[in-house]
Specification:
It contains no helices and 11 strands. By secondary structure, the protein is mainly β. Strand 8 and strand 9 form a beta hairpin. It is extended.
Length: 146
């Protein structure tokens, strides 16, 4: 069985979902709305005896910076996380894309994971330099069809 209710509340959307059968049930409630030029959300869930949660905020900075950019930050049952993206035309058909992400796990491991990548591309192909926690830097070169 599955059920879903949604309603507009205080300028956002509240959603309640229920799913289950005779052996197990899952519940999830969420609320999301536009806030300060971005989108904020909160989600609580219960499934198989485990409590889950996520609180996040995402915002695009298109038009604010020279190019496209965005940020997404949050916290969930596994830890704190964030992601920054940016892209722009550098000139003469050359584009640049950058992405960085981080997660700090708050469990017993308390592990920090960082990753970032820079990609330069034109109509002939691309070169991407990527690096992450515990990894050697990697260079990928290739071509794409648009």
């Amino acid at each position: 069985h599955r059920g879903r209710l949604s309603a507009a509340v205080a300028g956002g959307e509240a959603v309640l979902q229920v799913e289950g059968d005779a052996s197990s049930q899952a519940y999830e409630g969420s609320y999301a709305r536009e806030l300060q030029g971005g989108r904020a959300g909160v989600r609580l869930s219960h499934k198989d005896g485990a409590l889950g949660y996520n609180v996040s905020y995402a915002r695009d900075f298109d038009g604010v910076l020279d190019g496209d950019a965005g940020v997404h930050v949050g916290i969930d049952e596994d830890g704190v996380y964030g992601k920054v993206t940016a892209s722009r035309e550098v000139g003469q058909g050359l584009g640049a894309d950058y992405e960085a992400s981080a997660r700090f796990e708050i469990g017993e491991d308390r592990r920090l994971q960082l990753q970032h990548a820079l990609k330069l591309s034109n109509k002939l192909g691309y070169a991407q330099l990527a690096h992450g926690s515990g990894e050697a830097p990697r260079l990928r070169v290739g071509y794409e069809f648009n």
